[in-house]
Amino acid sequence: MIDLALYGFDDHKYPGSIPGTIPARIIAAHRERYDILCENGEASAQLKASVYYIDYADEPYPTVGDFVLIRYNPLGESQIMKTLPRTSYFARKDPDVGRGEQIIAANFDYVFIFSSLNEDFNIKRLERYLAVAHQSGAEPVIILTKADLIENHSTMLQQTEQVAIGTKILVVSVKNGYGMQEAEAYLQPGKTIVCLGSSGVGKSSLINQLAGEEIMKVNTIRDDDDKGRHTTTHRQLILLKSGTMIIDTPGMRELGLWSADSGLDEAFADVEAFLGQCKFNDCTHQNEPGCAVRAALRRGDLSRERWQRYLQLKEEVTYSENKQKFMQQRKEWSKSIAKKNRQMKKANQIHK
Ligand code: GDP
Ligand code: ZN
């Protein structure tokens, strides 16, 4: 018997159950099938059609990291009966997928946000990742990597501190071990970590170093002796020896900067603090009298650069929302057709 608590399950959070079901965690999501882990070990499961696929169903489709209730089948496919409420998740609006939203990962405790301390260092990108992380409901941790490549990282650290008030910032190098102890402190049993950051910033290198094994593929040109190495079936939720879990999926890797909307408030709490204080409710902060933002800029309480960045991000979010709306409308028609097809297919399955 496996104790699901080792995989972060806390049954106190989920009072009431469905008779005949047991909890499980999704460790990999495939097209129409899931790999799950339950008290009986690893198993394969499918969504119960009459719960998930009928017209009025609004049961969220599970994703990697989700806790679900299953009807366990020792002889074949188990059935997923319910997706339990999430403590955190990343969602991506996608009119082509499922119900217009694709959930990429769920129930993680920490979001490691990576940025490297070399010429790739980009404070704006970091800010956006931070907004996305805040929005997920989990705790962001900023990891500035490749400290060995730079003599003095104090300016970049300062810049980071300014945009990440209240967020833990680690400076690390896997090459010389700098800051690794602080990173290891996050290897807590039962906790789940996801990684955000552009390709090449050193996510895999750090996670592998922490894990003490190669669980994520490092972006280097393969050596000759690597050629024959067989890549085992890729699990998307990986349990480390420490008892910590890492979620690593293609979706996480692609996770870009689309849904930074509500997270913006938290990432820019210092800016937003001035917004409600203008004399006029509809202040545009251009030339109205009694504008708290312009006063803060004049006093130097708010840096011009940070204000500009805030405006820029706001604009990008609005643009991306409008674009999504347009796409949504355009796809509505084809979507409704697809839905009808799906329903017909499922109805046939149920009656089989
Ligand atoms: P990922 O794409 O974010 O997972 O990045 P990788 O972990 O694959 O690393 C990309 C490249 O950066 C590889 O060539 C690594 O060897 C290199 N790298 C990673 N961490 C460090 C570091 O701390 N110092 C230096 N100098 N290079 C690093
Ligand atoms: Zn104003």
Task: Show the helix and strand layout.
Elements: E1 22-29, E2 34-38, E3 41-47, H1 49-52, E4 67-71, E5 78-83, E6 89-93, E7 101-106, E8 110-116, H2 123-136, E9 139-145, H3 154-163, E10 168-171, H4 180-184, E11 192-196, H5 203-211, E12 237-239, E13 245-247, H6 250-254, H7 263-267, H8 269-275, H9 292-299, H10 304-351
Parallel strand pairs: 3-5, 8-9, 8-11, 9-10, 11-13
Antiparallel strand pairs: 1-2, 1-4, 2-3, 4-5, 6-7, 12-13
Tell me about this structure.
There is one protein chain. 33% of the residues lie in helices and 20% in strands. By secondary structure, the protein is of the alpha/beta class. The protein has a six-stranded mixed β-sheet with strand order 10-9-8-11-13-12, with helices on both faces. A five-stranded mixed barrel has the order 1-2-3-5-4. A two-stranded antiparallel ribbon has the order 6-7. The model is unreliable at 221-233 and 257-262 (pLDDT under 50). Guanosine-5'-diphosphate (GDP) binds at residues 145-146, 148-149, 173-175, 197, 199-205, 218-220.
Note the main attributes of this structure.
six-stranded mixed β-sheet, 352 residues, alpha/beta, binds guanosine-5'-diphosphate, five-stranded mixed beta barrel, single chain, binds zinc ion
Number of strands: 13
What small-molecule ligands were found? guanosine-5'-diphosphate, zinc ion
Strand order, largest beta sheet: 10-9-8-11-13-12
The parts where pLDDT drops under 50 for at least 5 residues are 221-233, 257-262
User: Over all CA atoms, what is the radius of gyration?
Assistant: 23 Å
Instruction: Indicate the multimeric state.
Output: single chain
- Tell me the structural class: alpha/beta
Report the span from N to C terminus.
Answer: 34 Å
Biggest sheet record: 6 strands, mixed
**Portion in strands:** 15-25%
Mean pLDDT: 83
**Strand-and-helix sequence, N→C?**
EEEHEEEEEHEHEHEHEEHHHHH
Number of helices: 10
Binned, the helix content reads 25-40%
What coarse outline follows from CA principal-axis ratios? globular
